């Protein structure tokens, strides 16, 4: 069986997700522990996950986006801290799951 590197998996994830830029058009690329919900829409993550799981043949029956969405974001002018009731979804979680051959966080 071919060994898959973390970088190969991460590159596949970032390739499947849409490009996001800041107001100054600087490319925003999440690091391995950034909550993906803070940058991407649920539909984008769902499409990426499906493509990733099928590309690497990962068992994903326990992967459920309702565990991670809806993600609360602060209001534009709010200083009140946001209290999340959903778990963060990160690139590290996808990398570890692909290497294990199944979704580990269900």
From TrEMBL:
Pfam families: DUF1493 (PF07377). This is DUF1493 family protein. It comes from Cronobacter dublinensis.
